[in-house]
Amino acid sequence: xxxxHHQAPANVLKITVNSPERMGExxxxxxxxxRPGDLVMLTGELGAGKTTLTRGLGDGLGVRGAVTSxxxxxxxxxxxxxxxxxxxxxxxxxxxxxxxxxxxLDLDVSLPDSVVVVEWGDGxxxxxxxxRLHVVIDRAVGDTADEVREVTLTGLGERxxxxxxxxxxx
Length: 170
Hints:
By secondary structure, this protein is α/β, with parallel strands linked by helices.
């Protein structure tokens, strides 16, 4: 009899973010937890705050260049200003084949030495790494204030088992 497929336990944090400023702040706090080789998947509808979060991440990592949605270039590399990792910001919306295409992008950077943030990556980049942080941004239901977001961070794999996600809710 085959053993059941073992999925590593996930480390989950749900947090309510009530303004774009707070979303950027969440990104800056998240940057402190990130290490080279980390894969962050961002999921959320248009306007949910994915780019705002990534901008905060870029600030926190101390990378060069304004973080904007990479829709038309598929991927943009933000080199570090200091000793930290580069930030690779990927928009997988038009990536049909997922990983192979990611490698074909010939990003002028080594993914294991970078923090990789992927928007619209569901079903496309999971095989990049068993260890990944999945960030889902939802508009708060039933709240008339349009800026309120429910953010669910799920750390998958050993890398995230003991990560202090709770520190993000500070």
